[in-house]
Amino acid sequence: MSTFKAPKGTYDLIPPESAKYLAVREAISAPLRNSGYGYIETPGFENVELFARGVGESTDIVTKEMYAFETKGGDRLALRPEGTASVLRAALEANLHKAGNLPVKLWYSGSYYRYERPQKGRYRHFSQVGAEAIGAEDPALDAELIILADQAYRSLGLRNFRILLNSLGDKECRPVYRAALQQFLRGLDLDEETLRRAEINPLRVLDDKRDDVQKQLTGAPLLRDYLCDACKAYHEEVRDLITAAGVTFEDDPKLVRGLDYYTRTTFEFVHDGLGSQSAVGGGGRYDGLSEMIGGPALPSVGWALGVDRTVLALEAEGVELAIPASTSVFAVPLGEEARRVLFGVVTELRKLGVPADFSYGAKGLKGAMKNANRSGARYTVVAGERDLAEGVVQLKDMESGEQAAVGVGEIVAELRSRLS
């Protein structure tokens, strides 16, 4: 047994379980690829200031959860705790917004890192698929992203998830609400750290998960009552477009999410079968983030969906994904000449896109057939010296148990025909 183990709060993806994660990533990204979103990949670490400015210095992510370190050259870097700031930074650095085709539509998939108390559904290393539409202020974009996420989840077979929707206003109406909320919070019995947070970003207090805080928030002013006419109209159009697409949602006037950069539309996907870690994904509009990190004004919207929690949601609903067998044909050679011939057959099948595997090592027929069974292959090709002397191999259907002799020169075509 190895001396080393995976770090606390992390996990390894190992076959066959890892196939679920690949299937989830594929299902989430498929609607994006069909809607004009191009793939982007950013480094696993960035300048600390990118997240301090973008995510927000008062957020738990930056103050408590971010893995920050200093390099040998003196640079202050951080493992990425979320994807939006990195993607926007990369788009600005590559001047994608100057190509003349706005919005810039991007999707990504990768690992993210936060120092948290490990529990089911909350890890220190986790996986997300995300999407960003950069450089356009249009309710149809907000609606598009919500609809695409709904489409992705439903394509996986998920049904018991809910979409929560809210508007956080903009720079015109939010300051008025912010002042009203601060005045309310100052009258509560809150600890010093929470009061300090209320002075920096009072909306973050609404996101506090502690029961004693939530009880005191009853009667707190709601942002929807302070929205300016422009924000009200924008939000109504988002709601109308989603409704027209047949996507159901719930208005949640207390939804703020945990990042400072959100404006106007904010939304969350929750699954009630996951207990306290019920959020499987979420996102919203972040019209001022580009300016926060030194770029031009680029109104944008996006989301990130958790691969780990989506897998847990599938398990909670008892959904079994239709994952194709990794091997369709398994070759069992008996003797050196058969090894050479069948290895050539396997190589040819793979070139033609047929998943095929081979019995490696000096195994006897019994041991090799056990491996064939474990592989999940539909067909097994067996050949020994006598078979090759007659110019044939034995083709066995692993479902029916039927076996027939097929000419060596015809076996590839025969397998392609049966598997098509």
Q: Could you provide a short overview of the structure?
A:
This protein is α+β, with helices and mostly antiparallel strands.
Indicate the low-confidence ranges by residue numbers. Answer: none
Largest sheet: 8 strands, mixed
Described by the principal axes of the CA atoms, the overall outline is elongated
Radius of gyration computed on alpha carbons: 27 Å
Beta-strand fraction estimate: 15-25%
Mean pLDDT: 92
The main sheet orders its strands as 1-5-6-11-10-9-7-8
Helix content: 25-40%
* Classification by helices and strands: alpha+beta
| Total strand segments | 16
Can you characterise this structure?
- With 420 residues, the protein is α+β, with helices and mostly antiparallel strands.
- 38% of the residues lie in helices and 21% in strands.
- It is built from 16 helices and 16 strands.
- It has an eight-stranded mixed beta sheet, sandwiched between helices. Strands 13-12-14-15-16 form a five-stranded mixed beta sheet, with helices on both faces.
- Strand 15 (392-397) and strand 16 (403-407) form a beta hairpin.
- Helix 1 packs antiparallel against helix 5 (139-155), helix 1 packs across helix 12 and helix 5 packs parallel to helix 10 (229-244).
- The model has no long low-confidence stretch (mean pLDDT 92).
